[in-house]
């Protein structure tokens, strides 16, 4: 195989790997956003549980305040009863006091209900806080791993770029220029193998004489259809793979 072709093949391998790494590095912000999104449901659950508990506590305070208001009313009504001049006035104050006492009992019953409801609500909040804490720890771990992977990708990419620069200095300038031109126009694939007489880049059959010249490996040749740099890998004999001679017809 022509030396420039060997370099071009390796150059394409490097370019493909660099492209993969660039995609991984570029995807990091989106990946981290997806990781952080895992916390949203846990955060919403915690907020909902806290809101339910806060509503319970507000309701209790409201009923406690209502009880104080009714008690103050009763105190005033009893003072006024002492000044009642008729039985009708006395009974009217008494009815109002009974109404206030009924409201107090209603508020007290509701407070008892709210107190019994608050216990599971408090447990829900505590459980949601613990679950969110665990989720945050897991998310931070995944984010750290993602950043570590990105740092590794950047380090590998730096090494590959150094190798690419070294290859570019060794390859014939004209071949390198053709490689770059074809790579840009052929979705990053500038070098293709010929298998069974066809270019694996465009799947078009090459001419017989072209194939014979390609097999000689004396020059860098381009596909007459797609323009890619072509190379040919001769089939490997069995004895080359096993170190033993191929079986004869009599042995087979």
Write up what this structure looks like.
The protein is mainly alpha-helical and 252 residues long. It has 2 domains: 3-170, Helix Hairpins, CATH 1.10.287; 174-238, no CATH class. The chain is built from 6 helices and 4 strands, in the order ααααββαββα. The protein has helices spanning 3-26, 28-81, 87-170, 173-185, 208-216, 238-242, and strands at 191-195, 198-199, 221-222, 229-231. A 4-stranded mixed β-sheet has the order 2-1-4-3. The longest helix is centred in the middle third of the chain and has 84 residues, at 87-170. The protein is rod-shaped, with a radius of gyration of 42 Å. The mean pLDDT is 89.
The radius of gyration over CA amounts to 42 Å
Helix content: over 70%
| Spans where pLDDT lies below 50 across 5 or more residues | none
The helix-and-strand class reads mainly alpha
The major sheet is characterized as: 4 strands, mixed
Give the name of the CATH architecture of the largest domain.
Answer: Orthogonal Bundle
What is the strand content?
Answer: under 5%
Task: Give the CA-CA distance, first to last residue.
Answer: 34 Å
What is the general shape?
rod-shaped
CATH topology name of the largest domain, in short, is Helix Hairpins
CATH class of the largest domain: Mainly Alpha
Widest sheet: strand ordering:
2-1-4-3
Mean pLDDT: 89
Subunit arrangement of the protein: single chain
